[in-house]
Amino acid sequence: MAFEYGAKKLNIRNPFRFEGMVRSVRGLIVLAIGVYLLLQIQSLLQTDKTSAWISLALGGLYVAGGLKALGGGLFQMMRFFVGRAAPASLAKNVAREAVNEAEPSLYDARSLHNMMMSKSNPTFVEPKTWFARAVHSIFPNLIVTPWPIRNMAQLVAMKLTKSLIAIAAYLVSSLVVYMVFAGTAGGGVGNTVLSLLMQAALFIYLAAVWVKLPNPLSRGNMTRLNSATSGGLALVVIGAIVIPVLFSQGWTMFWESARSGVRANLAEMVPQLAPMFHTGSLLVLAIVGGLVTVAIATIMVKARIGLVQINTNSSEMNNSWRFDLHPRQIFTTLRDLVLMERRQMELPNRMYLDKNNTGDANRDNEQFDGDMVVEIQPSVEEVAEPGSLRWTRIAGTILGQVLMLAGALLLWLGVERTMGHVAMMSAFVQNGVSQEVFNELFLIPAGGTVAIVFGALLLMGFGRSIARICHLFWSEIFFKSNLFDLHCEGTVMRTTHFRGADRHSASSEQDMFAFDATYFALATEAVSSTFAVSGQQNLEQPRYLLSLRGCDGFLNGVVGDLEDQFRRRNEEFRNEKRADQDERLDYIRREQEARRTGDMSAQGLVAPEARAALEESPLEGSADREKVARWEGESSE
């Protein structure tokens, strides 16, 4: 589970509690129905074994579905585990203390630098296909929403477009069929049959379009912006033209080849059996369900578009530095002192780029350069959402679960009616009845039962689609963080500082470095969002940069603290040099006094015998050994 133990929490709330509560209620009701059906098996086995087996199958199905819904709802209501490394990094984290991150990232260090440098946001990818452009023309600011919302909006728009084309084609085809069969032999029968066939085809097509909605929070929808192509629309147009023609030709061939007796029976039976299919009611249910789904998605998408104010600004600063320090101190001081003090909740900063060649800058007038891109630990940003988004999301969640529960109840009713039809069919087979009674007492009620089962499946499909759309808007969590980018390049100078006074006295040497550099710093306050899921990968999802705002105070503070550190360390080195110079001046004064008085040892100086011994014995050692150096006045700094 994505939970790194720590005493301090990130204070990220569980966004799924209400949704989980409503889902648990539905699961509990469905589970109770399943248990009730299973309890009926014992009594049914003694009277009707067929009904007992049907109750067993249906009860097992309801128990499994109820437990799944109840378990999922309770899981959403329970504790929302969030680790100390949440949320996911914007790019690959190259910091020393970075954990093994498996979350996909949409950016890299180069793209983050380009965003702050060019004042742009590559998250807002321009739509490519004409249909996607048409959707973004209706919702101009849809481009600034995260990719799962854009994919869902384009998918719903495509479903609506396909449905409108199919309905328009059905109306035109109905008019054409009516005109073709008007005044012909068997025209009334043909018109009724073809109307029923086209209604059934339209219903099946609309059900196939709307009932199945892919999971908006799948990994593919999070890491890829889908392109809505016109290939599906072309198939809809072709099918709307070809299917009615095929139906008409097929019926014409059948009617012409049928005998007169068959024609007479069809002319009598078709008007009686037309009501049994209930295609009109199912078609209205499919159209209403699609419109409700579109309305809920449209209201929430429109409200979400204005939720975050979109900016693409960044603060910038450029200047030159000249300090008596090694250039590596630029990046180590910035990373380990200045930016470390700006951590949030004592969490390590996200290091997206830490590259420099200052470690090899040890020769005179050698050039160096380096880059660093850092993000301060993101903190949760509470965004005030409009009432339309809040209440539509709540109503949609309730409606989705109610529709799925209503579908389950209708399916139960359909199964109960089916068992009654089976018993009636057995009685008809044993006793025999007329065709008219058989049609009225069996076929027409059986058609109603089939319509109930289709309606149940349709309601469950629409409820599932609406619940998935609402879940997308429940799961979005916003974060705020600071991004800092530094590019620095310059030259390094090395001088050798000799310690000592007399040319015959032992002294030490020390390499001193100074750098002359020019830097360019960028900083921005970023608003990002991610989509949580209830499970083991709760916040291990890609994060989307939505808004970049300039932060002059943060940038001035970071650069100001860095320069203060440079000045303090530079002052320490200068104090050491000043103390060494004072020591050498004191040595000169004592040497002059000793020469004037002729007493060298009284002043702590080297005696002539010791001086001769030093000149005769050469010294050997490492590069940093103590060595005898000729004093040539004040050493260079």
Automatic annotation (TrEMBL):
Residues 590-637 are annotated as: Disordered. Residues 622-637 have a biased composition (Basic and acidic residues). Keywords: Membrane, Transmembrane, Transmembrane helix. The keyword Transferase does not apply. The keyword Membrane applies. The chain crosses the membrane at residues 21-39, 51-70, 160-181, 193-211, 232-255, 275-301, 394-415, 441-462. This is Uncharacterized protein. It comes from Marinobacter salinexigens. The lineage of its organism: Bacteria, Pseudomonadati, Pseudomonadota, Gammaproteobacteria, Pseudomonadales.
